Write a sequence for this structure.
């Protein structure tokens, strides 16, 4: 009997599953790129070596007598290999019995989402491993001070290299910021498994995650963050056909395994997110070695300040304390915000 026109076949179903998985992963990735201000992801061609170039040097400022030869200024360009993670394959097998007992949604779709989330978390973990290799350091008595000191150190380093930063992103351990979030009315959004906060504790951009060690914050510029994908087209030429996104971040393939009466899911992770220039990464410590056991500070750390500050306290005393020392707290409505402004100002003065 001839095939009926427009029949939906098994291949059509698994293709839809592939597209759904890749689209979901790419949507999460695009939200992060939008916040970071990264326009595009670079796909690394098969067989290509990837390098970045660092220019260093300085102008000669020697005085030149009239008629004398102008002294030379020297700049040099260094080529440094960029480390891009090898593609990482993953596979799961969902038996027909599991599908019949648990249902298609529970056994296949939810399992796909969990698998993709775990893969994304690997990318984020690798990114923080790169941040841990940063060479700049800073220290603040408490979290707001550490954030300010990190930003000062990074901007000073960039200025010495005749560079500027449009946006600096800070990465903070959730346990270090929890006490500040407790007393503040803020809006957070979840991006790539991290919480993102804008305009808080005196800085523009903060990502909150458990992947940062407690007592430490990281900071780097948006321009220093790069994302790479792999060349899936070459893999397809070799017979490895995945449904892929346009950046080479991930490939997914669902296919029936009749020999095992199962649905087989294959995924290939091609994404690498890295901070390339290590001396444009700051690792700031919060209050030294004892920071891990500290809670968010109260205003008792300063003479004349109230014994404690929280959302239920009268804000007259910390406000008066700030005004007496010339610290501008106008525009701050909550005690948490006023306290953060006091810490940031006094820590910056000490620097």
């Amino acid at each position: 009997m001839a095939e009926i026109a427009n029949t939906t076949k098994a291949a059509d179903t698994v293709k839809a599953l592939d597209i759904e998985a890749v689209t979901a992963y790419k949507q999460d990735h695009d939200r992060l790129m939008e916040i970071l201000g990264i326009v595009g992801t670079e796909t690394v061609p098969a067989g290509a070596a990837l390098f970045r170039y660092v220019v260093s040097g300085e102008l000669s400022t020697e005085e030149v007598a009239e008629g004398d030869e102008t002294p030379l200024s020297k700049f040099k360009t260094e080529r440094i290999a960029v480390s891009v993670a090898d593609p990482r394959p993953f596979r799961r097998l969902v038996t027909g019995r599991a599908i019949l007992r648990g249902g298609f949604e529970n056994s296949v779709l939810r399992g796909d989402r969990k698998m993709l989330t775990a893969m994304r978390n690997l990318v984020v973990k690798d990114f923080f491993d790169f941040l841990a290799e940063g060479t700049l350091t800073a220290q603040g008595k408490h979290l707001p001070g550490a954030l300010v000191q990190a930003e000062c150190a990074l901007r000073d380093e960039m200025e010495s290299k005749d560079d500027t930063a449009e946006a600096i992103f800070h990465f903070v351990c959730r346990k270090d910021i929890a006490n500040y979030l407790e007393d503040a009315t803020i809006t957070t959004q979840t991006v790539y498994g991290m919480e993102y906060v804008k305009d808080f504790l005196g800085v523009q951009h903060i990502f909150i995650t458990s992947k940062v060690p407690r007592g430490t914050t990281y900071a780097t510029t948006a321009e220093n963050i790069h994302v790479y994908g792999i060349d899936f087209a070459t893999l397809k030429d070799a017979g490895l056909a995945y449904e892929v996104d346009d950046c080479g971040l991930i490939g997914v393939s669902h296919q029936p395994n009749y020999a095992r009466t199962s649905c087989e899911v294959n995924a290939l992770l091609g994404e690498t997110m890295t901070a390339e220039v290590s001396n444009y990464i700051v690792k700031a410590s919060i209050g030294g070695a004892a920071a891990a056991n500290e809670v968010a500070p109260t205003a008792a750390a300063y003479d004349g300040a109230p014994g404690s500050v929280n959302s239920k306290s009268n804000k007259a005393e910390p406000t008066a304390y700030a005004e007496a020392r010339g610290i501008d707290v106008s525009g701050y409505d909550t005690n948490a915000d006023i306290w953060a402004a006091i810490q940031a100002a006094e820590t910056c003065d000490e620097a």
Q: What stands out?
A: The mean pLDDT is 80.
